[in-house]
Design goal:
The protein is α/β, with parallel strands linked by helices. It has 7 helices and 7 strands; from the N terminus they run H-E-H-E-H-H-E-E-H-E-H-E-H-E. The chain binds nicotinamide-adenine-dinucleotide. Nicotinamide-adenine-dinucleotide (NAD) binds next to helix 5.
């Protein structure tokens, strides 16, 4: 319990001081605005995606998401606050990882969670000793505990503690993102705490 409280208190302080490094995995309609807003607030943000074209555009400062003005993106790149990469190894330096990969609906409105699984496996191999993982992708209840947690446990050999949250759907457009998303707490009460030792 003391370790948990210590970790959380230190983490909160590091957030206040904008010291934590954040990664957003999946740089689409949800991930890119989120990443750029954090970077604009002064956090160092690593954007991770598998799409090479997108990565190339991003690192040139060109936005492909209408909600993210190119000048905002170019601004945070210039300040050294945002970088995009396809290299999951870079997650070793990151304390907070936000998963924003797609979950398209399959037959009978079941979400396809294969992108989440693939992303979590890559994260697990590279996660830092103590880290916060937040699932932003829309999925069915239980995904964090039943899917993500076992995958992290299986893959994260060196990890001492992982804190996992789910962040329920809050916004779609930039306007909603700015007016509502940033006003209310982002993380749901549901916390799955898993000490891996
Ligand atoms: N939490 C919220 O507030 C909120 C709000 C709206 C939507 N959503 C959900 O967010 C998720 C993302 O939606 P979107 O519209 O941004 O999707 P999108 O298709 O626009 O973008 C997804 C990105 O993820 C990348 N990607 C796919 N697999 C990857 C992997 N294994 N590793 C790294 N990158 C990978 C893709 O290349 C793409 O760039 C969906 O599940 C959506 O329902 C959440």
């Amino acid at each position: 319990m003391a370790i948990k409280t210590n970790f959380i208190n230190k983490f909160k302080q590091r957030i206040k001081n904008k010291q934590i490094r954040i990664a957003v995995v999946g740089l689409g309609y949800v991930g890119l605005p989120l990443a750029v807003e954090f970077a604009k607030k002064g956090f160092s943000v690593l954007g991770v995606d598998l799409d090479k074209d997108r990565l190339e555009k991003l690192n040139k400062g060109c936005s492909y998401i209408s909600d993210v003005p190119t000048k905002d993106l170019a601004g945070v790149i210039k300040k050294g606050k945002f970088k995009a990469s396809g290299d999951f190894l870079k997650l070793r330096e990151i304390e907070a990882i936000l998963i924003c990969v797609p979950t398209p609906l399959k037959r009978k409105y079941h979400p396809d969670i294969s992108f989440i699984k693939q992303a979590v496996k890559s994260i697990a191999k590279n996660i830092k000793t103590q880290a916060l993982v937040v699932l932003e992708s829309t999925t069915y209840p239980g995904t964090t505990e039943e899917i993500i947690l076992p995958l992290l446990e299986e893959g994260a050999i060196n990890t001492v503690r992982i804190f996992i949250f789910v962040s329920p759907l809050r916004g779609l457009t930039r306007e909603i993102f700015i007016t509502r998303y940033l006003k209310y707490p982002r993380l749901s009460e549901e916390l799955v705490l898993k000490p891996l030792y």
